[in-house]
Amino acid sequence: MEATNFNFNVQSILFESNDPEVIMRGTMMKGVMQYESEIVLTHTQLNMVINLLQRQNAETTIHDLISSEPMYDGVLLYSGTFAELPNASIALDAISTDEPMKQIRA
What we know:
This protein is mainly β. The chain has one helix at 43-56, and strands at 7-16, 21-30, 33-42, 66-70, 76-81, 89-91, 102-104.
C-alpha cells in the first residue's frame, strides 16, 4: 500500500502475543475522501503509532488504553480502543518502513 498523503484516524488495534502482525482499524482519509479500513502493521510500526498518539495526546497515557486477556492456548490477545482520544489521526507517511503496509478494505 502506498502511504503518501494519507491520514488514518485510529479507532482500535488488535494482535496476539505470538503473531508478528497487528491489525489497526479506523478511517482512511485523503482530501475529502474517507472510508473505513483496516491496515496490517508490524510491531515496529505499532510502536511508531503508539508514540505518535502519545505525543499528540499528552494528557492521556496510551498504554492504559491497551488491555490483554489470555486465550485458550496460553497466548495473550491485546486490544486497544482509541476512538475517545481527542487527536487519534496519524499521517501514514510517519509510520512507513521498508516493510509495506497491507490494507484490508471491504
